[in-house]
Write a structure and sequence with these properties.
Distance between the termini: 30 Å
Strand order of the largest sheet: 2-1-5-4-3
Order of helices and strands: HEEHHHEEEHHHH
Radius of gyration: 18 Å
Helix content: 25-40%
Number of helices: 8
Strand content: 15-25%
Shape: globular
Length: about 200
């Protein structure tokens, strides 16, 4: 599958801290060619300031959405838009609230192509092990309980709130969180949630 097809499929994703600084981003985000017309901030810079300082009204709308998420007025915000009236593609920029254990509020921002002229994509190959058995995807490796924990992580709950919600011990939740992070191939709690949003493992509601 070509680079254009991959970008169409998954878009770009970045994680923000409570001040709007980009603390993590995937390859699609950092390699973006700005076709969507909205500014991208590399890791270590402030995306919220970049959007507020941009003259495009779409950027202002997303900035307002980010602020609403940071202030707890919304858990999720999204806007579908085009880079210009002449653009053949439409884009979806979404912002979802994140909260970690004592780390304060943060957000995940996803920017992806959702309509227009899509590149031709061949069927995905089935990946198998040497024995010929299909290899499970990251989400399929999670136990039912770990999936519940991931969904609650993506909904913005910290480990203590997850423990209360599932009526299990806090230490048990911490173990599940560590397992989820490892099984989905992430380096942190925020990256695990970012991957969940990017791959459609959790609902954006």
């Amino acid at each position: 599958m070509g680079r254009e097809a991959l970008d169409f499929e998954r878009g770009g994703i970045a994680v923000l801290d409570s001040a709007g600084n980009v603390t993590w981003a995937d390859e699609a985000w950092t390699a973006d060619d700005h076709e969507g017309g909205l500014p991208r901030a590399p890791i270590g810079t402030n995306l919220l300031q970049a959007y507020r300082g941009h003259e495009d009204p779409r950027a202002q709308a997303v900035a307002n959405g980010i602020v609403a998420v940071f202030e707890g007025k919304a858990m999720y915000f999204e806007i579908e838009h085009r880079a210009s009236r002449e653009s053949v593609r439409s884009f979806l920029t979404s912002v979802a609230a994140l909260r970690g254990d004592g780390a304060g509020a943060g957000a995940v921002v996803i920017h992806k192509v959702v309509g227009g002229r899509a590149p031709h994509e061949p069927p995905r190959p089935v990946v198998t092990s040497p024995s010929g058995a299909p290899i499970r995807t990251e989400i399929e490796r999670l136990t039912p309980r770990e999936r519940e924990v991931l969904e609650l992580m993506a909904a913005g709950l910290d480990s203590r709130a997850i423990a209360a919600n599932l009526r299990i011990q806090y230490s048990t939740v911490r173990g599940h969180v560590r397992s989820v992070i490892e099984k989905v191939g992430a380096r942190s709690r925020l990256e695990a949630v970012a991957r969940a949003y990017r791959n459609g493992w959790v609902a954006k509601e």
